[in-house]
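#lab-general

N.A. 3:47 PM
ok so I finally got the sequence cleaned up, no stray characters, all 115 residues accounted for. can someone with queue access submit it? mine expired

B.Y. 3:52 PM
send it over

N.A. 3:53 PM
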Amino acid sequence: MIVTVGMKPYLILGLAPLMVSCSLGGPPSEVERCEQEILAKLDNPESYVRGQNDSLPLGDRWQVGIEFSYVDGSGEQVDSAWQTCDFPIVDGNPDTSEFLKLESSLDSAENSVSD
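B.Y. 4:20 PM
back already:
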């Protein structure tokens, strides 16, 4: 495929197979576990659409951040919701069997879980 940017043509080769192969594996287990927490809080879990997400070690914990949209209980579209999930690190990987901390745009401050 030839793409022009300004007046300069660029030949794009082989990007489609790379993009497809990256998306075939699905999200990492820690992202899936964090999504379970989101879905449990939604009145209309079938309306959930994941947006950007990150999963990274932060020294003493592993943090997942997910942006998402959904339809609330009154039928209104919410386009900019978020959830963070902190997990302990075991052998360099997130241990999704427990949460260290949860924060969400769906929760009030007093409903957050923390150690």
